[in-house]
Amino acid sequence: MDAADPLAGMRARFDLPGGLIYLDGNSLGPLSHAVRQRMARVLEAEWGEGLIRSWNAAGWIDLAQRAGDRIGRLIGAEPGEVIVADSTSINLFKVLVGALRMRPGRSVIVTEAGNFPTDLYMAQGSVALLGQGHHIRLVEAPADLDAFRDALDEDCAVLMLTQVDYRSGRLHDMAALTRLAQDRGALVIWDLAHSAGALPVDLNAAGADLAVGCGYKYLNGGPGAPAFIYVAHRHQAEIPATLSGWLGHAQPFAFEPEYRPAPGILRQVCGTPPILSLAALDAALEIWDAVDMDVLRNKSQALGQLFIDLVDRDVQDPELRLISPRDPDQRGSQVAFSHPGGYGIVQALIQAGVIGDFRQPDVLRFGLAPLYLGYADIWDAVRALAGILADGQWRRPEFAQRAAVT
Ligand SMILES: *Cc1c(COP(=O)(O)O)cnc(C)c1O
Fold first, then answer.
1. What is the pLDDT of residues 184-240, one digit of tens each?
2. How far apart are the C-alpha atoms of 33 and 304, rounded to whole Å?
């Protein structure tokens, strides 16, 4: 399977340490050679030599738009619909408050009870800020279309969903849910944290309104890389600038005392972008210019299928349960299992050179990034997992020590 893999050559573009199987690209993607080279150039030539001149000469001032357009190609957006800015959490706040203000007279944010905590927390902050009876309505997982149909009434302003569940990897039907919410007059916000760079996404084909996502997961932009924000062209003139900072002004260098929002996606920018991090993300995105997302998806699904098949065949522990959908079309680019000893098992795996991660309460998560993983990696990872479960070494006390980041 590795010999027939059309993406096999991509691994050489990454700077992965030897002797390691990296199944955590859904939390932090690896360093690529392009990023290493770009960082050296940005530091030495652009910052070191160019200094302030580099805002113009090196194009720092519109780097966020260029990087945004590169991401746009991966998520079905047109040029000018995506910009890189801030963190995913902050971008969620911007679109949540913006969307609530676009639907005066409606007061409810509908989302999933199992959504990623920051999405829930930012929704809580948004309704607290706006007051006026705004509140959140939670749909219990596992959510299906009927559960959302019941929750979306004429009081619903926004449906906010993460397309790929961060724990189970369950994939929502973006087009169907978008249509359902819009038929009831609501706007839809998609969190693409586990979608961008993981599978083909087509925001415009789905008629999506607003979206956000991460730069440091499957896009490999580096720790704390800035995030992205998408506003469909048809909403760009209408959505208020929630965080009305100077770089989102129509004319920042006019230094006017009154805020006037920039046209288009630019009003989603607040302050000065972190150029070092942004340049790293932009360099990481170069790789994606050559990637066919359908080819990527095929490999991602095959990697996941192989993982599940090998666990079914080789792991005897009855407490290990697959919590990802078995149907590859309902799964993002990860497989996840539950086990009461989940934390210790993940720690034992890491010590054996297989890096996945643990999520509360009992979830072992394995990210499958087709750009740098091969089928033999999956084979070896499942063999390590089977061995650790069979001999019980994960019960050793050292593996129970909880670190700050799991
Ligand atoms: C990783 C993740 C985030 C991260 O938000 P930050 O502001 O970058 O920390 C947000 N939403 C989801 C669904 C995620 O998985």
1. 999 999 999 999 999 999 999 999 999 999 999 999 999 999 999 999 999 999 999
2. 27
Residue 89 has pLDDT above 70, yes or no: yes
Report the separation in Å between the CA atom of 57 and the middle of ligand 1, taken as the mean of its atom positions: 33
Ligand 1 pocket residue status of 86, Cβ below 6 Å = no
Protein residue whose Cα sits closest to atom 5 of ligand 1 = 88
Strand pairing of 210-213 and 228-231? antiparallel
Residue whose CA is at the smallest distance from ligand 1 atom 14? 193
Q: Whose CA is nearest to atom 15 of ligand 1?
A: 193
pTM comes to 0.98
Q: Are 72 and 288 in contact (CB under 8 A)?
A: no
DSSP letters, 306-345, are HHHHHHHHH---TT-EE-S-SSGGGB-SEEEEE-TTHHHH
CA–centroid distance, residue 147 to ligand 1 (Å) = 24
Measure 49 CA to ligand 1 centroid, in angstroms: 35
Tokens representing residue 213 in the block: 């996502």
Could you tell me the CA-to-CA distances from 394 to 308, 341, 349, 401, 406 in Å, in that order? 21, 8, 8, 12, 15
Reported as a pLDDT band with limits 50, 70 and 90, residue 142 is low
* 216 is a catalytic site residue: yes
Ligand 1, atom nearest to 115 Cα: 13
At 13, list the tokens.
Answer: 């573009």
In angstroms, what is the span from residue 256 Cα to ligand 1's centroid?
34
Integer Cα distance of 114 and 311 in angstroms: 26
216-to-163, 178, 224, 304, 347 alpha-carbon distances in Å: 17, 26, 6, 21, 22
